[in-house]
Amino acid sequence: MSDGWIKLHRKILESGFWEGETFSRGQAWIDLLLLTNWKPKVIRKRGLRVYLDRGDCGWSEIALAERWRWSRGKVRRFLDELESEKMITKKRYKQTDGIQDKRTNKITIVNYEKYQNLECDDGTSNGTTDDTISSTIDGTIDGTGIKKEKKEKKKPRGKIDAPDFVAEEVWNAFVEHRKQIKAPLTDYAAKLIFNKLEKAKNKGFDPEEMLKRSIESGWKGVFEPSGNNAGNKNQNRVRLPI
């Protein structure tokens, strides 16, 4: 029973029982494989655009701890063990300008390409590539899959994704608002706003409400509420230089 592999579709993540209780170590490993990117992509970390290669997982220790219902220390010890067993490596994020982020690691699955070889049981090439993965008995993954039911939607050129803690609908409304007042968002401007929203969130303010208030008031920037005068445009504020 130690030879061969089985197909395991990512739709298993949508099953209610998959995240129904605390993860076992084996389930955490399979989950990590399911969360790994099958193709290169760009994500945002702290408002910065960073690259993830094929075989990289962009989930942080904090996010995995919440997902697996573990402590952050347990997640870190588990990842350290996987790294010592040469099942994963941890590398620094590389931004789109080529600079490495020294604050955050990304997780890379070792031998991803070896087991994502797109070969069928008879050794012939399958020729299909999608987000279906197959899991071998030792926890590695194989890329043989089925055709996609739906084609992945391409992100419009120049579109700035919403931060993780803001609903896409609210963020898109703010981006459109900026266009309407002839102050379209640049990557740098979005970074400044992300940082301001995140700081406000850590203080207990609602980032989405801040964005909505800026839209309603016709403001270019975002501001933390200030007591009963939160809606007064004449109150003292430090405006973002964007």
Explain briefly what this protein structure is.
This protein is α+β, with helices and mostly antiparallel strands and 242 residues long.
Structure notes:
- By secondary structure, the protein is α+β, with helices and mostly antiparallel strands.
- It folds into 2 domains: 138 residues, Arc Repressor Mutant, subunit A (Orthogonal Bundle); 62 residues, no CATH class.
- 31% of the residues lie in helices and 17% in strands.
- The strands form 2 sheets. Strands 2-3-5-6-4 form a 5-stranded antiparallel β-sheet. A 3-stranded antiparallel β-sheet has the order 1-7-8.
- A hairpin with a 4-residue loop joins strand 7 and strand 8.
- The chain is elongated, with a radius of gyration of 22 Å.
On the 0 to 100 scale, the average pLDDT is 75
Number of helices: 7
Reading the helices and strands in chain order gives: EHEEEHHEEHEEHHH
Given the helix and strand composition, which structural class is it?
alpha+beta
| Tally of domains | 2
Poorly predicted regions are: 120-151, 228-242
How is the topology of this model organized?
Elements: E1 5-8, H1 25-35, E2 41-45, E3 48-52, E4 56-57, H2 61-68, H3 72-84, E5 88-95, E6 100-109, H4 112-115, E7 133-136, E8 141-142, H5 168-180, H6 187-202, H7 207-217
Antiparallel strand pairs: 1-7, 2-3, 3-5, 4-6, 5-6, 7-8
Helix pairs in contact: 2-3, 5-7
Give the key terms:
single chain; 242 residues; alpha+beta; Arc Repressor Mutant, subunit A; 2 domains; 7 helices; 8 strands
